[in-house]
UniProtKB/TrEMBL annotation, chain A:
The lineage of its organism: Bacteria, Bacillati, Cyanobacteriota, Cyanophyceae, Oscillatoriophycideae. This is Spermidine/putrescine ABC transporter substrate-binding protein. InterPro entries: SBP, Sperm_putr-bd. It comes from Zarconia navalis LEGE 11467. Keywords: Periplasm, Signal, Transport. GO terms for cellular component: periplasmic space.
From TrEMBL, chain B:
CDD domains: TM_PBP2. The chain crosses the membrane at residues 33-57, 77-94, 101-122, 176-196, 274-296. It comes from the Bacteria. The keyword Transport applies. Residues 89-295 form the ABC transmembrane type-1 domain. Its main location: membrane. InterPro entries: MetI-like (IPR000515), MetI-like_sf (IPR035906). The lineage of its organism: Bacteria, Bacillati, Cyanobacteriota, Cyanophyceae, Oscillatoriophycideae. This is ABC transporter permease. Residues 1-15 have a biased composition (Polar residues). GO terms for biological process: transmembrane transport. It is a multi-pass membrane protein. Signal peptide: none annotated.
């Protein structure tokens, strides 16, 4: 089989695994579900939920493509991954008649750019990418991405950037006045050159290790997601999150039903459960992520509503952009990124 | 080893050579077959065939999941010999060789003491305590090193307490070497111990009787006898550290790209290119195979008394 001369399809996704109708398998990010939530869902619907977690969109996609995702009826991809999965034919078009409460979302989520009219996905959580810094150690406080370049001496080896080519290159592009989704090779090269200049001052490219190190004071500043920033700020009062003035990336995590989903009934039940304003509000309070439900937002206490890390003002969001897949220059980004992180 | 055995016609390997009188064919084949069969099937299905699949994928330029596997050439291999990738491979080699040498330097005295000098009845207990770290997950051990090496960590607290200046180790190459050496030292000690344990003590006494100084005895009698163990231990540490993902990733900082990370990114990173990833994997497999082949050729010869 393996050595036959005719081609075979790499990582062909196979369909449907049989699962019991009263069990729902979901594939989600760590921190998006907890025991209470799963128990409550079981009380209301009688469906037992088994949640597996992934740590990156790419890991999730690879698992699906390796044919190991057949049991899942609900998956939590981010915005750009929704586009990619849609193109790969991995998603089921949602039946809007079976969803209750779609009109209670924030206006910006009624028809998001990554998925017109939410045809394939349902936004659950959103946030921004910015800088978390120690306000006791860094004065004056950083306001924009260029702080990193202007204060290299002060932050030398006490700063981390995300381990994500698009986020890091995008932030640099934005600082230079270009788009997060630039496809112009000249602009991309310029961003790389700026980053190469900053690199000696950077301690690591990491998407999670910075969290414990900034709490202990080993880092002065880190690039991170608002969701994580909110979490570490609860651990240390010295930490503060700033949404960079020149703009940041706006990300949305969504619910989708994969085309191989074995249990559609339970999948829609889960979506409606998550659309319930009470549930959304309780998740925001308990797990600390920004929700997409405006009705849920209204139920929150004022101190959470006014938390600028979770719910930044419209003005602050104006310059922010969502990342979209740019396959035509993906190799270019990858080459620069490999050079940056390997040299 | 067993793989290559499996590839050759068994008649070359088993039974007396040139033995023409062979009345009971069945019993001659049954033994080897029953002994090697289960492991052989295991190796063919879970090692040989998958490696062949990796090799086939490595011949397809720029393939992603969903693409058609239609081998067309060695482009992916040529790609691996470009500037930045060479640097990554050299860094992997540097880290692997460095941690092998460190393990040897630290491990030999320990193994020597355990095998020759330590009181007999404590030996097993002490050997056991030395291997104890292997009982915890390697991830956990790397995280422990972060706690020790970070700028305000355990090490610098101790150094500060005794009035010494702090060290900046975390997120730099020394931290990776420390982590790898710590991770793989027990393997080195185990292998050196089993090799030194068999040391012929009468030779040591004879050497002393004939007027050799202790250093001469050590270099001319002990070390040559331990050479197969040194070679096997070094090779094991070299191979495991060459493919190590956790330590460079967690301890290495901004310039820690290794071959393992490079391969990981081709498969699970943002720009998938399974063909190039497979080619890099094949190069790693080939490098390791060559190292093992060299060991089998020269290591065995040294093992002759």
């Amino acid at each position: 089989m393996t050595l036959s001369s005719c081609g075979w399809t790499l990582a062909d996704v196979r369909t449907t695994v049989q699962t019991a109708s009263d069990v729902l398998y979901i594939y989600t990010w760590a921190g998006y579900t907890d025991r209470d939530l799963l128990n409550k869902f079981q009380q209301e619907t009688g469906i037992r939920v088994i949640a597996d977690v992934f740590s990156s969109n790419e890991e999730m996609l690879a698992k699906l493509q390796a044919g190991a995702g057949g049991a899942y009826s609900i998956i939590y991809p981010s915005d750009y991954m929704v586009i990619k999965m849609k193109e790969l034919g991995l998603l089921t078009e949602l039946d809007r008649d079976r969803l209750v409460g779609l009109d209670q979302l924030f206006p910006q989520f009624e028809s998001p750019s990554y998925d017109t009219d939410n045809r394939y996905s349902l936004p659950v959580s959103w946030g921004t990418t910015g800088l978390i810094f120690n306000k006791e150690q860094l004065k004056p406080a950083p306001e924009d991405w260029n702080y990193l370049w202007d204060n290299q001496g002060q932050i030398y080896k006490r700063a981390t950037l995300l381990n994500d080519a698009r986020e890091v290159m995008g932030a640099t592009l934005r600082m230079l006045g270009y788009s997060y989704n630039s496809t112009n090779p000249k602009e991309i090269q310029e961003a790389y050159e700026w980053l190469a200049e900053l690199k000696p001052a950077i301690s690591a490219f990491t998407s999670d290790a910075w969290r414990s190190q900034i709490v202990t004071g080993d880092l002065k500043i880190a690039m991170g997601y608002s969701f994580d920033a909110n979490e570490v700020m609860e651990e240390s009062p010295d930490l503060q999150y700033v949404l960079p003035k020149s703009g940041s990336s706006l990300w949305t995590d969504t619910l989708v039903i994969p085309s191989t989903a074995p249990n559609l009934e339970a999948a829609y039940a889960w979506m409606n459960f998550m659309l319930d304003p009470e549930i959304a509000a309780s998740l925001c309070k308990r797990l600390g992520f920004a929700i997409s439900s405006q009705a849920g937002f209204e139920l929150l206490p004022p101190e959470i509503k006014d938390n600028p890390t979770l719910f930044p003002s419209e003005v602050a969001l104006e310059k922010s952009q969502g990342l979209i897949p740019i396959p035509e220059v993906a190799d270019l980004y990858d080459r620069y990124w490999t050079r940056l992180t390997s040299a | 080893m067993s793989v290559s055995t499996k590839h050759q016609p068994p008649s070359n390997n088993f039974g007396p050579q040139g033995d023409s009188g062979n009345p009971r064919f069945g019993s001659r084949w049954l033994g080897p077959l029953a002994l090697l069969g289960p492991a052989g099937v295991w190796l063919i299905f879970l090692l040989v065939l998958p490696t062949l699949v990796i090799f086939e994928i490595s011949l397809v330029p720029n393939i992603k999941p969903g693409g058609i596997v239609n081998p067309s050439g060695l482009d992916n291999y040529f790609l691996a010999f470009q500037g930045v990738y060479i640097m990554v491979v050299l860094r992997s080699l540097f880290l692997a060789i460095g941690s092998t040498l460190l393990c040897l330097l630290l491990g030999f005295p320990v193994a020597y003491w355990l095998a020759i000098l330590a009181p007999q009845r404590w030996r097993n207990l002490m050997l056991m305590s030395f291997i104890l770290p292997l009982w915890t997950s390697s991830l956990l051990r790397s995280y422990a090193w972060i706690t020790i090496l970070r700028p305000t960590g355990v090490l610098n607290s101790v150094l500060g307490f005794v009035g010494l200046p702090g060290l900046e180790l975390l997120n730099r190459p020394p931290a990776v070497l420390i982590g790898m050496t710590y991770s793989f030292l027990p393997y080195m000690v185990l292998i050196l111990y089993s090799s030194l344990e068999k040391l012929d003590r009468q030779l040591l006494e004879a050497s002393a009787d004939l007027g050799a100084t202790p250093p001469e005895t050590f270099w001319k009698v002990t070390v040559p006898q331990a050479l197969p163990g040194i070679a096997a231990g070094s090779l094991l540490v070299f191979i495991t550290s060459l493919g190590d993902f956790v330590d460079p990733e967690l301890l290495g900082g901004a310039s820690s790209g290794t071959a393992a990370r490079l391969i990981y990114d081709r498969f699970l990173g943002q720009t998938q290119n399974w063909g190039f990833g497979a080619a890099l994997s094949m190069l790693l497999i080939m490098a390791v195979s060559i190292a093992i082949a060299l060991l089998l050729k020269y290591g065995d010869r040294d093992a002759q008394p």
